[in-house]
Amino acid sequence: MALTKEDLRFVVTRLPRDVRDLAREHGLFIGGGFIRETIAGNKPNDVDLFGPTKEVLGLAAELIAEKRGARIHKTDNAITVLTGSRMPIQFITRWLYSDPYKLLAEFDFTVCQAVIWFDKEGCLWKSATSPTFYSDLAARRLVYTYPQREEDAGGSMLRVRKFLQRGYTIQAPSLGGVIARIARAVNWEKVGDDEQHVGRVIAGLLREVDPLTIVDGLEPIDDHESIND
To answer: Of the candidates 83, 95, 86, 8, which has an alpha carbon nearest to the alpha carbon of residue 50?
Structure first.
């Protein structure tokens, strides 16, 4: 599945020009929150860029930071370019991708499963989404995807909290999947069955995830302008 032709154009034209040019030149993928929020008619908080190696992402971050006169903030998850009141740009380094469809599969909710990239051979922008991206976004419904990736156990649960604050809903099967991810990280032989003790252990797993460095949909932590007809 892919974005409609109109939505693809809409998203790309709302990327800052320098981000759009950078993605084209360095073969980077744009995914997750920027696409979702733009299509939903909301103001995105940042742009997340993904690529094949830390070296490619680091070079791209340095180039745009130098051009903007911006400062760079590095975490274990991402390199963030910060420029005054302009939208932050995040180069995600914890997970590396040379295939947009692999990136798509590793977002943990279907409303995050949207990726765009520039195809140099075809000289046009392309996109990919989950089959239910549009319907789940319209319903503001969280559907868990059980992604197969290395991540702090509490990451998806903290994203659930964020989305609930924004008016999304989550049904029991998906919430159960998110809870199961945390439960798998608990050493039950050591924890025992005391409910309060279990609660403290799970709270510790949640605190391990810094809300400022969670990648949207995978989420750590907007200028506008053209593209294909």
So the answer is: 95
